[in-house]
Design brief:
The complex is a heterodimer. Chain A has 4 helices and no strands. Chain A is mostly helical. In chain A, helix 1 packs antiparallel against helix 2 and helix 1 packs across helix 4. The mean pLDDT of chain A is 88. Chain B is an alpha+beta fold. In chain B, 50% of the residues lie in helices and 10% in strands. Chain B has 18 helices and 9 strands. In chain B, helix 5 packs antiparallel against helix 7, helix 7 runs antiparallel to helix 8 and helix 14 runs antiparallel to helix 15. The mean pLDDT of chain B is 94. Classes of the chains: A mainly alpha, B alpha+beta. At the A-B interface, helix 1 and helix 2 of A face helix 12 of B.
Chain lengths: 88, 573
């Protein structure tokens, strides 16, 4: 994944989390644990499906538990998605 | 891969004897006497010791007899048909604790727990704290570091089966104060190693049903445990529970189906013996209908539970939603059927003495099915977040049905793989994918059945649209009743799919291969799920006579009312 692609993924992810939490995207701090925002543990599992659909990859269902901030999630996905993947 | 040895369930049935015979090894009379004293039935516990019931909970690789979940369910039904308190208090709580150990423990932990169980001890599963109910994320019992290799437990666990007499406990404790899903761990507490002052028993909780089961609590005052007591990776307690509970949420209601089996026997026996309006109560059409409804509900419950149990063998990474659906639906079917039978019994369900006194005990003992080991609504909440992804993926595309063996009783299945249990299905839903092919088979078989099956296919299509659009708020604890209703509707579709596929895959079975029961089953599910079925002849009324004849013949022939249609011990045999 290129830096540009990682940045796009980060923006998309923040919007997606704001959608689940029903708040403004600007309120999501990418370095803060999503659990601090009250994201339900089971609901966090569903974010994984969203990420899989967008990236066309398979992830562990607990990926959000193990990488609980936006920045950690993006870094993890960037490491998983092949660099030559055209779009993310 | 599988065992073709003489059935353990039959062996246990023979050992326990005909419960209606007063001198039987485990008679209903003895069970009722123990219940009146709010004690475990001592004869029953001794007999289960002799049988070595604990070995049924221990995987074969650790020296036990647990190979197949459906076989375990069968064995436990023999217990639950006689005394649910014995089922829970002797065994099931050890089974719940054990599954978590088999799913996450290191080899030596598994061996240690297996050793305790095989030696006849109990292991308690201590997850519950009264203040937090099913909200595991809020668990307070703290496991804080103490020295380089130790932890200290501080806090309490409440309403725990066998808390006072268990040799070991599997507890869910907070290993990290931060919120989130990696802050809790499960760990094994060895009662013998705990300094008495640090592990204090709370008074026993008196209860309405399961009166003999020692429900207790424990207070931990800095109780020391080694760090090596943690099951799996530290912080993975919730994950281990979510993975393991699909086994127990499926197996427990499946075992409880034995309660309804006896409930039907009591009610049908009462109806046959009592004379009103110049005929026996059992000759009244409305009474026959009530009995048939209960019989069909038992077949629905058994179909759904056995299909999910067998699916856990065949597709263990795709059963997390089905297991919660099974707990939700099966428990409700069983309780509702028993409630209706209680009205049939009139005053006889209320009195605690006499020939039919067993019924009031069964009714009270069954009630925890609705709230214990996950309340029914908590099951819906576990399902909800996964429904949108399943709708977008497998429901929309059709998905891949599971292997046929899932629906064929007695056929080999892959071994139970605790390691493959997954916290989500990743949008896959093989059990729902089996609906469409079954609907096709009904087309040439029976017009009533086809009409009903088509209605369920339409219901799944409607759910696909509704679930794909679920509002995010409706996926969490603030879900609306309407959203929870979608999860409940899905459970109904899954139950209908299980019944249809049992029918499809048992063409040679005299009873299960005939459409009568499955027409009745789908009719009842459609009615309770408010599913519109195209107009036609009244399917249930037309099948009732045949189903009543089956029920009456099983009653007279001392056979179970579930799918197994198993002979029961009678007289001195």
């Amino acid at each position: 994944m290129t830096t540009f692609q990682a940045r796009a993924l980060r923006t998309w992810l923040i919007d997606r989390i704001a959608y689940y939490l029903e708040c403004e995207s600007a309120l999501i701090n990418p370095t803060r644990s999503l659990a601090d925002y009250g994201l339900d543990s089971v609901l966090a599992l569903t974010l994984c499906g969203d990420l899989e659909d967008r990236l066309g990859i398979r992830l562990e269902p607990t990926v959000v538990w193990d990488h609980p901030t936006v920045d950690e999630l993006v870094a993890h996905c960037a490491g998983v998605v092949p660099a030559d993947r055209g779009t993310v | 891969m599988t065992t073709a040895k003489p059935s353990r369930a039959k062996e246990l049935d023979q050992l326990l004897g005909d419960p209606w015979r007063p001198g039987a090894p485990l008679s209903h009379q003895a069970v009722l006497r123990a219940d009146e004293r709010a004690e475990m039935c001592a004869e029953g516990e001794r007999l289960l010791d002799d049988f070595g019931l604990n070995a049924e909970f221990v995987p074969a690789r650790y020296g036990g007899r647990l190979v197949r979940l459906d076989d375990l369910i069968d064995v436990m039904r023999a217990v639950f048909r006689r005394d649910p308190a014995l089922g829970l208090g002797y065994g099931v709580s050890s089974f719940i604790a054990g599954v978590n150990v088999w799913a996450a423990g290191r080899t030596e932990q598994c061996q240690a727990i297996a050793g305790l169980l095989l030696a006849g001890n109990r292991v308690a599963s201590a997850y519950h704290e009264l203040a937090h109910g099913n909200d595991f994320a809020r668990v307070e019992l703290a496991a804080t570091p103490s020295g380089p290799a130790g932890l200290r437990l501080t806090g309490r666990k409440e309403v725990i089966t066998n808390a006072a007499r268990a040799a070991a406990l599997v507890v869910l404790a907070r290993t990290d104060p931060a919120p989130g899903s990696r802050s809790l761990s499960q760990l094994i507490v060895d009662r013998a190693a705990a300094p008495p002052a640090t592990l204090v028993e709370l008074p026993r909780y008196a209860s309405t049903g399961m009166r003999g089961v020692p429900l207790g609590g424990l207070e931990f005052h800095g109780c020391p445990v080694p760090r090596s007591a943690v099951l799996g990776a530290p912080g993975h307690g919730v994950e281990v529970a979510l993975r393991s509970f699909q086994v127990t949420r499926t197996a427990l209601p499946a075992m409880l189906a034995g309660v309804l089996d006896t409930g039907i026997r009591v009610a049908a026996g009462f109806a046959a013996a009592r004379t009103l309006y110049g005929r026996t109560v059992g000759d009244l059409p409305a009474v026959r209908a009530t009995l048939v409804d209960a019989f069909v509900d038992l077949l629905i419950a058994d179909s759904m539970a056995l299909v999910t149990a067998r699916a856990i063998h065949a597709v263990p990474d795709r059963t997390s939603v089905a297991a919660s659906a099974t707990k939700f639906l099966v428990s409700r079917r069983l309780m509702d059927a028993m409630d209706r039978l209680s009205r049939l019994l009139g005053a006889q369900f209320y009195v605690r003495t006499g020939e039919h006194a067993l019924f009031q005990k069964l009714l009270r003992d069954l009630a925890p099915a609705g709230f214990a080991h996950a309340a029914r609504v908590a099951c819906l909440m576990t399902m909800l977040p996964q429904l949108p992804l399943m709708a977008r993926r497998d429901w929309r595309s059709g998905g891949q049905p599971p292997p046929a063996a899932v629906y064929q009783r007695g056929t080999p299945l892959p071994p139970l793989s605790f390691a493959d249990l997954a916290v989500t299905t990743g949008g896959r839903d093989p059990l729902a994918a089996a609906l469409a092919p079954a609907v096709d088979i009904t087309a040439g078989a029976d017009p009533d059945l086809h009409r009903l099956a088509v209605a369920f296919r339409a219901e799944l299509a409607a759910l696909t649209t509704d679930c794909a659009q679920l509002h995010p708020r409706d996926l969490g604890p603030e879900a609306s009743p309407e959203a929870l209703g979608l999860a409940a509707r899905y459970a109904t579709v899954l139950a209908a799919t299980a019944c249809l596929n049992v029918w499809c895959h048992e063409p040679d079975d005299r009873f299960l291969g005939d459409p009568a029961w499955v027409v009745a089953a789908l009719h009842r599910l459609a009615r309770s799920g408010r599913i519109a079925v195209a107009a036609g002849p009244r399917p249930l009324a037309a099948r009732r006579a045949a189903l009543y004849a089956e029920l009456a013949s099983r009653l007279a022939g001392h056979r179970t009312f579930d799918l197994a249609d198993r002979p029961l011990p009678r007289g001195d045999s």
